[in-house]
């Protein structure tokens, strides 16, 4: 009987209207290596419905359950709702936004996240109204993530974000843009609910992995980063515990929280 589910994660596809065929080799390898695909935002380049249709067609070649969160690029054309609908209707993608879902016995909670900085240097809601509004948006995304995680009842749980919840996976980006890579406000609900693993994107020049202050593993799965480090298999695979009632009907191998990339243990 299966004891785990193989979750492949990647973000920052930045699909354009000319990307038809570009992602099929990637998705074919995902289908060979995993049971579920998790997409961590910036699925499109400018957030247009046309780009979403191209990506939906690419995803349609891969018969795996797919969950996703949107990223900042997916909001650029003010059509994020339509982008989500196209991916859902045409490719069956479940787009999470402060929501949660159980897939084959594993719980997935997701939110986009937001910038704001990390630790003692995080931006505070003080001074001008636009600054307070910026911080309020970061807090709202953290509350969305908390709400989604609180809904999960499965033994195996995965958190999806676009923005980073810790500074460690941002290291390597220009220091001037660190505050725009994520927010440690996202770390608080992660530490409280302790999912098995957290995936995020956005930091194309960041680090592959880190942990929250409570020891929860965090993986940066931005495609540009993974392509540089693992060109033959630019996605992460984590095995997460499956709920008891799903084990009889789902065949995989391995143990909980075994991470692989480029065909090897990470």
Describe this structure in words.
The structure is a single chain. By secondary structure, the protein is α/β, with parallel strands linked by helices. It is built from seven helices and 13 strands. The strands form two sheets. A seven-stranded mixed beta sheet has the order 4-3-2-1-11-12-13, covered by helices on one side. A six-stranded mixed beta sheet has the order 5-6-7-8-10-9.
Main attributes of the structure:
266 residues; alpha/beta; Purple Acid Phosphatase, chain A, domain 2; seven-stranded mixed β-sheet; six-stranded mixed β-sheet; 7 helices; 20% strand; disordered C terminus
How is the CATH topology named?
Answer: Purple Acid Phosphatase, chain A, domain 2
Helix vs. strand class: alpha/beta
Mean pLDDT: 92
Provide the domain count.
Answer: 1
How much helix, percentage-wise, in residues?
A: 25-40%
What's the helix-strand series?
A: EHEHEHEEEHEHEEEHEHEE
Topology record:
Blueprint (H helix, E strand, L loop, with lengths): L3 E7 L13 H10 L2 E5 L8 H11 L6 E4 L10 H12 L2 E2 L3 E5 L2 E5 L18 H23 L5 E4 L26 H7 L3 E4 L8 E3 L5 E4 L2 H7 L6 E6 L2 H4 L11 E3 L2 E2 L1
Parallel strand pairs: 1-2, 2-3, 3-4, 6-7, 7-8, 8-10
Antiparallel strand pairs: 1-11, 5-6, 9-10, 11-12, 12-13
């Amino acid at each position: 009987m299966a004891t785990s589910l193989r979750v492949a994660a990647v973000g920052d596809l930045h699909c354009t209207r000319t990307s038809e065929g570009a992602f099929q080799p990637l998705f074919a390898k995902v289908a060979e290596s995993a049971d579920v695909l998790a997409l961590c935002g910036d699925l499109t380049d400018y957030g247009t419905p046309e780009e979403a249709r191209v990506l939906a067609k690419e995803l349609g070649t891969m018969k795996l359950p797919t969950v996703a969160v949107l990223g900042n690029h997916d909001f650029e054309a003010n059509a994020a709702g339509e982008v989500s609908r196209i991916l859902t209707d045409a490719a069956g993608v479940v787009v999470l936004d402060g929501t949660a879902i159980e897939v084959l016995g594993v719980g997935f909670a997701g939110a986009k996240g937001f910038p704001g900085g990390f630790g003692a240097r995080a931006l505070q809601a003080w001074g001008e109204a636009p600054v307070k509004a910026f911080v309020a948006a970061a807090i709202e995304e953290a509350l969305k993530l908390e709400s989604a995680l609180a809904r999960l009842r499965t033994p195996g749980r995965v958190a999806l974000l676009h923005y980073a919840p810790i500074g460690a996976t941002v290291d390597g980006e220009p220091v001037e843009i660190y505050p725009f890579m994520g927010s440690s406000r996202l770390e608080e609900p992660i530490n409280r609910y302790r999912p098995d693993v957290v995936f995020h994107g956005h930091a194309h020049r960041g680090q592959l992995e880190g942990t929250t202050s409570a020891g929860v593993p965090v993986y940066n799965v931005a495609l540009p980063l993974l392509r540089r480090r693992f060109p033959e298999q630019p996605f992460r695979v984590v095995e997460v515990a499956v709920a008891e009632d799903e084990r009889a009907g789902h065949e995989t191998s391995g143990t909980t929280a075994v991470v692989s990339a480029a065909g090897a243990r990470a």
